[in-house]
Amino acid sequence: MLSHWRSSSTYEVEDLLHYKDLIPRLEVALRKFSKLDSAEVIQPVRTTVPLQKYNGFLGLMPAYLVHEDILCTKLVCFYKRESGSTLPSTQATVLLFDPEYGNVKAVMDGEVITAKRTAAVSAISAKLLMPTKSDVLTILGAGHQALSHYHVFTETFSFKEVRVWSRRKETAERFAQSTQGHVTVWESVEEAVNGADVIVTVTGASEPVLFGQWVKPGAHVAAVGACRPDWRELDDVLMRQAEVYVDSREGAVAESGDIILSGAKVFAELGEVLNGTRPALREKTTVFKSLGMGIQDAVSAKLVFEQWKNKH
Ligand SMILES: NC(=O)c1ccc[n+]([C@@H]2O[C@H](COP(=O)([O-])OP(=O)(O)OC[C@H]3O[C@@H](n4cnc5c(N)ncnc54)[C@H](O)[C@@H]3O)[C@@H](O)[C@H]2O)c1
Ligand SMILES: O=C(O)[C@@H]1CCCCN1
């Protein structure tokens, strides 16, 4: 089947999952994950099955949060698509289990969960690490993650200017037309990030698109794409000049080409900053390298399930 099927579950999850509920739960989960002695969170590094023939991979993302008793796994397929393709690059399904008996309690769409929880975690990173006075937000990429990031960043913060760049100008223009607030479209990354306080990279690139020489000192970069060990979104200069924060060290050193290939050192996990065990170096140039975690899907799925039960 070549066309993309958005099930009713996609719309249902969209209605049930809200950033105001999701962000505090993600913060709690990130805190627990980063406690050194924590036996409360079980989350192996994602298993990936490369599909080289099709330029993609299947990822399996199980997690168990012991205290909350949430057992969950996401199955996600990601493909690098040709410019102009209308097929989705991410397709995902989330399974929520009853941990006591092992039965599946719910099967739900994972695309909205992936879009919203990833953007919400980037917003948590920005809350902790962006310059105190942040006026300009630039989004590089104009797909699903670009939109969810636009929504949560404009809901959570008050930027004076929002800019977008995409490798095809028409896509960036369509993106700008689809948003409620005013978004300016830029033709080059260099111009789009000039003077930006916060930069979100949400592209399908496997070579750097953002170069350190263009980034304002002290800016915060939420780097969401490039999730394979040989893929890049950011260049070596940026990776080496910035303080690098991650969601999971273990995940980052296994999966992030930006970290592995640049040799950059990870300064802290977001959960360590939330726990107060590592500082938020807001005045420095910071990169939050996001890879995505099973626990983020697990708390999102639990929230969706709770909201669904309240309605039925
Ligand atoms: N960190 C996480 O938790 C997480 C979660 C989901 C997705 N992602 C990643 O986020 C990125 C965006 O995902 P999405 O769902 O928005 O995808 P999408 O296909 O909806 O959008 C991708 C965007 O990147 C652009 N793009 C593709 N190839 C490019 C290239 N070579 N150079 C520059 N731009 C390019 C496309 O034109 C489009 O604007 C992907 O890399 C995906 O793997 C990360
Ligand atoms: O954490 C995730 O859900 C995504 C899936 C696609 C690739 C990157 N990470």
Automatic annotation (TrEMBL):
Record protein name field: Ketimine reductase mu-crystallin
E.C. number: 1.5.1.1, 1.5.1.25
GO CC, alphabetical: cytoplasm
Protein family: Belongs to the ornithine cyclodeaminase/mu-crystallin family.
GO molecular function: pyrroline-2-carboxylate reductase activity; thiomorpholine-carboxylate dehydrogenase activity; thyroid hormone binding
Top-level taxon in the UniProt lineage: Eukaryota
Subunit structure as annotated in this protein's UniProt entry: Homodimer. Binds the thyroid hormone triiodothyronine (T3); T3 binding inhibits enzymatic activity.
GO terms of biological process kind: thyroid hormone metabolic process
EC class: oxidoreductase
Catalytic activity: Delta(2)-thiazoline-2-carboxylate + NADPH + 2 H(+) = L-thiazolidine-2-carboxylate + NADP(+); (R)-lanthionine ketimine + NADPH + 2 H(+) = (3R,5R)-1,4-thiomorpholine-3,5-dicarboxylate + NADP(+); L-pipecolate + NADP(+) = Delta(1)-piperideine-2-carboxylate + NADPH + H(+); L-proline + NADP(+) = 1-pyrroline-2-carboxylate + NADPH + H(+)
